[in-house]
Amino acid sequence: MNHLLYAIAVLSALGFGQAMAEENPDAGMNILLLTKSSGFEHSVIKQNASGTSHVERILTPIAKEMGATLECTKDASKINADSLKKYDVVIFYTSGELTETGEDGHPAMPAGGMDDLLAWIQAGGGFLGFHAATDSCRTGNGPTPYIKMIGGEFVTHGAQFEGVIKKVDGEHPAIVSLPERWPLQDEWYLFRNLDKENMHVLALLEIGNERNKQDKYNIPDYPMVWCKGYGEGRILYNGMGHREDVWEHAIFKALVKEHLLWVSGEGPVNAAPNYTETVPDTLP
Hints:
Blueprint lengths: L2 H12 L2 H7 L6 E5 L19 H12 L3 E5 L7 H4 L4 E4 L20 H10 L3 E5 L14 H6 L2 E5 L3 E7 L13 E6 L2 E4 L7 E7 L15 E9 L2 E6 L5 H5 L1 H14 L11 H4 L6
Parallel strand pairs: 1-2, 1-3, 3-4, 4-11
Antiparallel strand pairs: 5-8, 6-7, 6-9, 9-10, 10-11
């Protein structure tokens, strides 16, 4: 079955948010933010006395400005075929094996939830992952279906440092506002199982002098923001966002808007594989 026929079949089964939006063209984007932490819970997604997290408090006005509806939850049981019908975009800032209750005690993803999520994306859904999303649903015994989908797997990180985010694709609508080079202090993940055959690299981390300070970063510059087509859907991963001040930065907020618009289906896909052409294989 080709992609188009598959998409039609799954769309009929799921009846998800994009179909609803077509019936009601005035409806805004419907977004689900999942911050379930079966593993380590990052400070930016911990809820305070108000019942909200830092990421939620950043994303809520962004969604409002875009005319979108944002639902924020730590309940991974919402990742199922019926629930996904309501959304155009799903955002993960998650960690650990999401089918387990784990560290934060919130409900786990149902056994078939990952299959439902992947089918939803293939049928036209938009998936956006931040930072710890690559530290989710992985076994260490080769890439899981989720890791293959998102395009890379967290391995480790060192001490935080100021790296430089270097724009690779200056024409891509998902990063149009990103400066050519953006110095940024953050926690920088190192990855394995990068989907080099399918990913479209949007920005690299320039390691710079940190190579001489931390052995684990004595490697060539590597992708930190990338996107992919996935059936009829779209996937984008942004490895930044460990720190509160990153989420507060005007450049990052602008990127979030552009990411959301692109994964929701606005503009061309423009996700042809470009790893070989854009990522250095030797040290500078």
